[in-house]
Amino acid sequence: MTVSETAADTIAIQEADGPAGAAGATPQAPPASESVAAENPAGEGDTGDPSSGDAGANEKPLPSIISFNHKFFESINDPAFRLSEHTGEPGLFFHLSEGDVVLSIPGIVREFKLEKTDDGDMLELINECLRFVNEVRIGDPVPPEILTGKASWEVSPRHRQIAYGRLTLQLVAWISGEELDSSNTDDMMRSTEDPDTKKRVNDAFGKAAEALGIGHERRNEVIDLITTLADELCHVEALREQVMRVRMTRTKIEKLRSLYSNDQTISDIANPVCKLMNTAVSTLEEPILQVDGQTGEILPLLRNIAPQVRFVREMRDELYCRLRVWSNIFTSWEGVRIARSPENEELLRETYRFLAPRYMPTDDWILLGKLYSDDDNKSAMRW
Length: 383
Hints:
The protein is mainly alpha-helical. Helix content is 56%, strand content 6%. It is built from 15 helices and four strands. Strands 1-2-3-4 form a four-stranded mixed sheet.
């Protein structure tokens, strides 16, 4: 049992009437005389809209394993669902004697009349699965992000310590009235090891319990709430480090651009790459800024933990899906020596090809894409 599940058994939360997180809805604090917990603070196991406690109540549960009823899926050789390298669209990839075949999911639904069938629903589910995994095969489990809201990927103990430390220091800042400076993670973690800080954190648990209306003697429930939140926010801390890797890659590219400032040919590549990297950094930082803003006020956070956990998970999944595709770029730029070389020039071109379809303004990318559409995927049969 995880720490969040342990906390869920001991702490309860009162949620606002109506969908939490619906447009215009503001989470309501529970009456001071009531407990501050509910059995399921994160809405785990809810297969409906995570922003609504009632959504999905009348819907059939999601399957936990990928499977199909139509015999077509059993008749093909080595089928796998993946995103196309050329279009980014999901498709069914398999082999025939004539060569590789790629079938679009809408084409499959149309050809086999799978609209409003279990198989049609399964294909829609596969679309969602491909946000979190590179490939889906028949018999694979559905990612837990879809089934329970929990992350399918692990973080290090260090990331959990950072998340827990950030939350406890927010408690201390709430009592002292001082603003928490958490911009430097290493400094923040050293602060949590200070004996005086540890004493202030210990005192803060009791004062928070009093502020929540449950009494100082129930301070352990506040500790459980903090642990529950840390169990969620630790994934954001891990992703924060990945965004820092994007920033470090941008710095290397800017230095390389400076070396080629008198080379018009390479500057024509390096300048757009730097511009696109700025857009990428801003885009990737936005979910983290939203989480930091939403979780910055510690008492409202503790009073309304369920909608906050759902919000954190939504931002976590959004950022995780955006960062998954960066692994090859990180590998390519790590260890690069900042110098003029044919290898670095090609790496700039490779980086541009990666960034353009993701961070170039849509109209510009559509226009550019038309120039190359005739060359896309000629080696594969498409339906």
